[in-house]
Fold this sequence. Notes:
This protein has helices at about 20-60, 65-75, 80-95, and strands at about 95-105, 105-115, 125-135. By secondary structure, it is α+β, with helices and mostly antiparallel strands. It has one domain. It has a 3-stranded antiparallel β-sheet with strand order 1-2-3. A hairpin with a 2-residue loop joins strand 1 (about 95-105) and strand 2 (about 105-115).
Amino acid sequence: MTARGGRPTGRGRGEEGMVTAFVVIFAFVLILVAGLVIDGGLTLAARIQAIDEAQAAARAGAQQINLPLFRSDGQVVLDSARATQAAQSYLAATGHSGTVTVTGDQVQVAVRITQPMQILEVAGIHNLTVVGHGAATAEEGVTAPNQNGAAP
């Protein structure tokens, strides 16, 4: 109902445009939630990829034992320089950066992957960096056979 001059009277006074504001805010929140789902999933996938690459690079490094020493007395000792180079070469082939540390008979690798955001960029989050860690130890032979004699 309107009074003279077209001004609303009663309950609706001053609420013009409230539905529009609600819809805009609701749509924005819905986009942010979709961004959390999509970009969160992409970030988790990048973290899994970083862990996989770190573990594989560590295994590549742990294979670089000092062969002359092993052949002479059977002792398994990592060639530190070759282990570092093998792990870094593996990382270079994946296109990601990381750090390689060789301590004794263990190779530790940390891989960094920067995941660009698809939807959360609207909220000012342009990318997230995830880190995956992996370690491998140089060992001789199979240490725990299965019941059928195959390697685990």
